[in-house]
Amino acid sequence: MPPDAAVTETEPEVILDIVFEDGLLYAAVRNISTRPAYRVSVGFDKGFTGLGGTQETSSLRLFRNIEFLAPQKEIRTLVDTASSYFARKQPKKLVADVRWRSSDGKRHSHTITHDLSIYEQVAYVTRKETHAGLAT
Description:
This protein is mostly beta strands. The chain is about 5% helix and about 45% strand.
């Protein structure tokens, strides 16, 4: 790679990712950079529930304030089985407003849109073990 193409990472970068794994949906707050992020929060354009409708997932403390998110670290939570999430007519499109600060206090933010409908017809093989009390 030519020297002028090299990118020097000077600021943290945080994302909200939706992970589909073995028929389960997870929401993950990830610091994808090599710099720490501070006071991380995620706001959603609409509320959504998980764990069979028993948990208001979009309002978990996880999304309100993470004081420190180490470089290359993720914190994720199980949302629900994909079949339960879609059967309960939860939002298929989620817009997440991700905000954080760098070590010098500088504010950063961006908006990420996830279209969960891409997972609605994905085939998968279930495992016999349980996840957070949910049989898969």
